[in-house]
Amino acid sequence: MDDGLLADALARDDVVAALQLLRPAQLVVPLAERAPGGAHRWGTLEAADRRWLVAFTSWPAMERATGRSGVPGRVVSLPELAAGWPDPTWGLAVDPGLAGHLTLEAGTVARLAAPSLAEQVAAEPDLVHPLVQALLPVAEVDPRLDRGDGRYSGYVHQLHDVLHIATPTGLVRALGRSGDGPELVGDRGSVFLLRWPAVGPELYRPAYGGRTEEGRDAVAGWVVEDAPFVGLGFSPQVDALVREHRVHGVELPHDAQLFELGEDGREHRWGTWDGDRGTWLLTPPRYAEVPA
Fold first, then answer.
1. Based on the domain organization, do 156 and 187 belong to the same domain?
2. What are the phi and psi torsion angles at 263 (to 5°)?
3. Which residues form the SseB protein N-terminal domain (predicted)?
């Protein structure tokens, strides 16, 4: 990103233009001392009784601000920052020390990196009903089929973000659910997936929040969840970048489908929701396997 563009927008007091520049930008995050295990820590600064994660719009901008060359850093996008955000009470300082600098609250970072599904649909006219997917605990599958349960509450992910993940363990890891493995992975090493078009995108709210009420309020969110929940709209896996939504009692549309993803990466369709009759239509075994 050309740091001059950000400086020009801020010089015009055009904060909206500045934020639009940052949304798709690749930022340079300086790396501090190595953390235990060899991992890098992101550079931070203390100012105005707050801790700020530091990012620069380019390598030259970082050199000018620090007065040094060769400062170790990593190029990241806003979604990557959001997925690995260390603390919801921290802010983001962009180009600190330069004339065109900008500070953002964590909640602003979340909304730039992970806009709501309704905003996505409004911005992409061809995206009428985005496909979403939910990972079901194994113990819920038979009762759901037996009761004719056509509603869902919990976390939902956009299918586009996870469709390339071909194994059950890989999917569980990408969603930050490895700690729930025994509940999610069956005896055959498979997982069960609900999949449907998101009719009424305003019902699929981004999972903004924190691990405490203070963290939730810091991002102007609505979810309080235990670790490893991050709360900036993504599952807690920087390398996967899976957008995370949470719904309550959403009604599945007609033709929603239930799949089993096997260890071999093959999907088997268990059933299709008949919204007219309020029941699951089970798929005969010979038709169950979905072509790759």
1. yes
2. -60, -30
3. 8-109
